[in-house]
Amino acid sequence: MSITVRVPATTANLGAGFDCLGAALTLYNEFQFSPIDSGLKITATGAEADRVALDSSNMVYQTVVKFFDRIHQPVPGISIDIKMDVPLARGLGSSATAIVGGLVGANAIAGSPMSQSEIAAFATEIEGHPDNVVPALIGGCRLAASGIDRAWEICDIPWDASIVPIVAIPNFELSTAEARGVLPTDYSRADAIFNTAHLGLFVRGVETGNADWLKAALQDRIHQPYREKLIKGYDAVREAAIAAGAYGVVISGAGSTVLALAHQHCSEGVRLAMEKAWTELNVGVDAKCLAIDTQGTRIINTL
């Protein structure tokens, strides 16, 4: 039996929601798992497929191994075919797709011993934080907070259909380690209050589509001021997007992708403006108008 799992890309942080807020996007990686007599076979096609490890160090396979170790079963012989549309190291959750795809595929192969909530908790344990893996698994925009018993509480954030996420993906990478390395270890009370207020405003802004709330809500003092300097042309891209009508611009995840939010009536103009701004700086860019994926990870084919 072969199983194909489709996992959406994600954008995390969304301004003030550092390490706790993320949304699934209509851009996907697919993973096909097929049984073989023994051992491992991996193939990869699509964007940057030549950079994917085809041996036991592959992140998808490593996740499969962790799953079977957790349920105390031997890892079966397996063939994994990866079809990539989510670029690597660009702040769009490529590692989350590998972790979630590996867990969902392994769970299906094993007869579904884990529930969705158990998979979410396991994926968060592997990734280290929930902001990418949870929306990748469940879909939608999700806020994650630790509960009283240290388990994660996952809250759905309604997203007004008129708000379009536009991603501008440059042809250079920014590693999560590098992006975290520039962050301070301590923040002022004023910055903590600022981000708390703006996260609350963002939640209401995306629910209602209120333009004034969204324009204010996308500000941040925890990570963006420190990371912007790592992204060549960030100011030019941001200014171009806002001039074209965007509510605001944020760094997607740890970068290097830049995310704009705009009303659907001007979203294409925003996309073109962001693309032009980076092109004029001799930076190759792939800009896309996307939508919020509401279904999350799906098993799309079983043969």
Structure explained in plain terms:
- This protein has helices spanning 59-70, 94-109, 116-127, 133-138, 176-181, 189-208, 211-217, 224-227, 234-243, 267-279; strands spanning 3-13, 17-35, 40-46, 78-84, 141-146, 152-157, 163-170, 248-251, 258-263, 285-289, 298-302.
- It is α+β, with helices and mostly antiparallel strands.
- The strands form 2 sheets. Strands 1, 2, 3, 4, 5, 6 and 11 form a 7-stranded mixed sheet that branches. Strands 8-9-7-10 form a 4-stranded antiparallel sheet, sandwiched between helices.
- Helix 9 (234-243) runs antiparallel to helix 10 (267-279).
- The protein starts with a strand and ends with a strand.
- The model has no long low-confidence stretch (mean pLDDT 94).
- Keywords: Amino-acid biosynthesis, ATP-binding, Cytoplasm, Kinase, Nucleotide-binding, Threonine biosynthesis, Transferase.
Helix content: 25-40%
- Note the beta-strand portion: 25-35%
Query: H/E element string?
Result: EEEHEHHHEEEHHHHHEEHEE
Uncertain runs = none
Basic shape: globular
**Arithmetic mean pLDDT:** 94
Number of helices: 10
Radius of gyration: 19 Å
How would the blueprint of this fold be written?
Blueprint: E1 3-13, E2 17-35, E3 40-46, H1 59-70, E4 78-84, H2 94-109, H3 116-127, H4 133-138, E5 141-146, E6 152-157, E7 163-170, H5 176-181, H6 189-208, H7 211-217, H8 224-227, H9 234-243, E8 248-251, E9 258-263, H10 267-279, E10 285-289, E11 298-302
Parallel strand pairs: 3-4
Antiparallel strand pairs: 1-2, 1-11, 2-4, 2-5, 5-6, 7-9, 7-10, 8-9
